[in-house]
Amino acid sequence: MVKGRSLLPREHGAYAQLGFPLLTGLVYGGGHAGAFAFAGVAVAAFLVHEPLAVIMGLRGVRVRDLLLDSARRRLWLLGAAILVLLVLALWLAPARAWRAAVIPAVPALVLVPAFLTGRVKTLAGELLAATAFSAALLPVALSGPADWWSSLAAAGVWLGAVVPAIVAVHAVKVAHKGRPRRRWLVPAAPVLAVVVAGLAVVVAVWLPYPAVRALAVLPSVVVVVVVSGVLPHPRHLKRIGWAVVAANFMTFFLLLVI
Asked: What does pTM read for this prediction?
């Protein structure tokens, strides 16, 4: 193993983007065994990214040469885990959960060409991944007693929380790296955050319960507005990430208590 290298995904923000929706889905799913099977499929599919990137040489020739055998073993292990978990989900989960699984599968499949060309970290690639991660909540929640309306509302909250944050991170990078063609991201981040907050309020006021849960997106929106106003140097991105995670904890809590 290369010193300091791991076969775990290096996109650390993605852990929270996937983890919080899955945790929400597991709670909404009431501990159903099928929910855990679908959650396991999502986690295993996420973990496939790094060994496959190593095998394809996206991490460099030296890393590929040194980690190739380990990456292949990890890939086979994860592939077997996905197959077993899918069989368990087919056996344990109701049909509506399988229908819901199509929703995250679509953006995940659309993301494949971006991965193969090494463009996952582009704005479009990250937004596609965020959509798949947020929608992964649906088959997990719908394996148990959750209804479609509650599950879609929760998935929408997570998507609304993550998308402005992704745009804000790209805006921070653009603001300090002199990319005039992408300067539109700087004002776009706070505007998008305000739009999301406005939509959340409208949905909460005008639609029946559980639409009020849309307000759970507000902590994440506040963080994006603050970051967009300060525009810290990219060397502080780790701190921004932790602030986003803290807001996500608040969003998760609100989704459970509202």
From this structure: 0.90
